[in-house]
Amino acid sequence: MTKRSPQKTLTLRSAKQRRAFASPLRLELIGLFLNREPLSVAGMAERLGRPATALHYHVGILEKAGLLRRVGVNRSGRRPEALYLPVADLFKIEQAKDDPAASAQTALKAMSTAFRMAERDLEAALTSPASGSSGPYRNMFGARRLHCRLSRKDLAELNRRLRDIEKMLSRLHKTHEPSPDDAFVSLTVALLPLRNREIQS
Prior knowledge:
Elements: E1 9-12, H1 15-21, H2 24-30, H3 41-48, H4 56-64, E2 68-74, E3 81-86, E4 90-93, H5 100-126, H6 152-175
Parallel strand pairs: 1-4
Antiparallel strand pairs: 2-3
Helix pairs in contact: 2-5
């Protein structure tokens, strides 16, 4: 079995990178590369259902910020088109000490985009005959919004389990050889502190 190259993580430290990452549309563009397949602007447009002319500007911003890079040329069409890949598999937002509000805004937009994409995936899954919501091989699961008071011990245990899930998905993404029988899935999770809110019994 051929192993994929290790995942690369890029921490966004510059204001230019954070501004580029703060756009919902540009986050969606980055999200198109889950299977590490190079795409042209036309290919991105086809997957998003948008005209290519609406994406050139945003692809340019991502490239100038060092988040997308050119990896080749597609010569199969009427004219050659540049092919792009993200410079990393994962992007992390580093809080800017000089402007923590800007970092928070970038993180908020990134998570909002992630959940909007999850909403669209859920809408499609609910009407797909390939979706399964029960049994050991289910590929669709939606938990209701849960609130819970956790001790420090319980919170540490929850974080260990979340890290185990993240490590499992990361390992499989790097080493798994694709098969026609695979379930291609997305997992979107948020653990958030609640302030000044009482849990109703």
